[in-house]
Design goal:
With 334 residues, this protein is an alpha+beta fold. It has 2 domains: 158 residues, no CATH class; 149 residues, no CATH class. It has 9 helices and 11 strands. The strands form 2 sheets. A 7-stranded mixed beta sheet has the order 3-4-2-1-7-10-9. A hairpin with a 5-residue loop joins β1 and β2. The chain starts with a helix and ends with a strand.
Length: 334
């Protein structure tokens, strides 16, 4: 990995997104009585199967197992049987949890004069992305910034390295402010300027942080020690923003209950973003086999009675991604 890219990954908190692609394969077989069987096979970085988004597990009724492989890779296999007219899972989380990926799934059966129709509909609910990445995308509209953020740091001059660190600092400060805004939203009884004071404290901390050590690190040859030092510098920077936020909360004389509400809301937003970053480089293949003949669908392809959708993480960023298929089972054939 280029050193400049490593710096962006470290300071922008994208380590989870860069950990490795997770390939999700799901096969759903629907029967005439609305019973169903589901088979999942998720393969990729082992950490993605134990951290980040929720996975199928025995505590949520699945028969599940993880098989380790080489190079820190692993495969999770899981199966689930659904009773006739039973509810299909809409998340892999143990309970209602907006932090985990949500995909409400509905299966219905409709009797018409000519046949029985089966309707499958799943909605992968959108993950907030734009507000966290707006600063980065805004900066990259300038071709000079884009080249700077994606160049090999060894090719950069000292002046460009300083600019690189400044751009990354802008990106991370703006992202941290989104978490702060989530906390501010929980302070419903406080006037607007309370939130503004907290925001300003974070901005000033970002501007005041000494980046000289980071600049010096970028001049060093690539090595595990240099990379660890970059990670440590990134963590110190992030901690300085959080310390400034905590000091501002105290300075605003918030009650203990208000501070708890702020911190809980911020932590939830931070956790949701971690899952979203984890999802961004994942790929899905969902196969649904319906009773009878498929008559309508929005799948990538349909062959016989099976519809197949293939999509990636960006498909669920900032908008819902909907899977729909309808099949027809003629009464004379039953």
């Amino acid at each position: 990995m280029h050193a400049s890219r490593l710096l962006v990954v470290s300071i922008c908190g994208l380590a989870l997104a860069m950990a490795g692609c997770l390939e999700r394969k799901e096969r759903i077989s629907i029967r005439e009585d609305l019973s169903a069987s589901i088979e999942c096979e998720f393969s990729g970085d082992a950490n993605d199967l134990t951290e980040g988004d929720a996975m199928p597990s025995e505590r949520t009724g699945w028969m599940a197992a993880i098989k380790p492989e080489d190079d820190n890779k692993a495969t999770l296999t899981a199966t689930l049987e659904i009773a006739p007219a039973g509810a299909l899972p809409g998340t892999f989380a143990a309970g209602p949890d907006s932090v985990a990926l949500q995909f409400p799934t509905v299966l219905t059966k409709e009797e018409r004069a000519d046949a029985t129709y089966y309707h499958f509909r799943r909605v992968y609910q959108r993950r907030d992305d734009a507000r966290y990445t707006w600063m980065k995308r805004s900066l990259e509209q300038d071709s000079r910034n884009y080249e700077l953020l994606h160049s090999d740091v060894e090719t950069l001059s000292d002046d460009d390295r300083a600019k690189l660190i400044d751009r990354v600092r802008q990106i991370e400060t703006d992202k941290e402010l989104q978490f702060v805004e989530a906390g501010i939203a929980a302070l419903k009884a406080r006037p607007q300027d309370t939130g503004l004071h907290i925001r300003m404290a974070v901005v000033k901390a970002g501007e005041a942080f000494d980046t000289e050590s980071a600049k010096a690190l970028l001049t060093q040859p690539a090595s595990p020690e240099r990379d660890r030092a970059i990670n440590a510098a990134a963590e110190r920077y992030l901690q300085s923003l959080r310390d400034a936020k905590d000091a501002a909360l105290r300075a605003e004389r918030l009650t203990p209950a208000e501070i708890k509400a702020f911190n809980d809301a911020e932590a939830r937003d931070r956790a949701a973003r971690t899952v979203t970053e984890d999802l961004q480089d994942e790929v899905w293949q969902v196969k649904v086999t319906m009773p009878g003949e498929i008559v309508a669908h929005n799948a990538t392809e349909a062959d016989g009675g099976t519809a197949t959708w293939e999509f990636d993480g960006p498909a669920v960023m900032d908008r819902d991604h909907i899977l729909m298929v309808t099949s027809r089972l003629a009464k004379k054939n039953r």
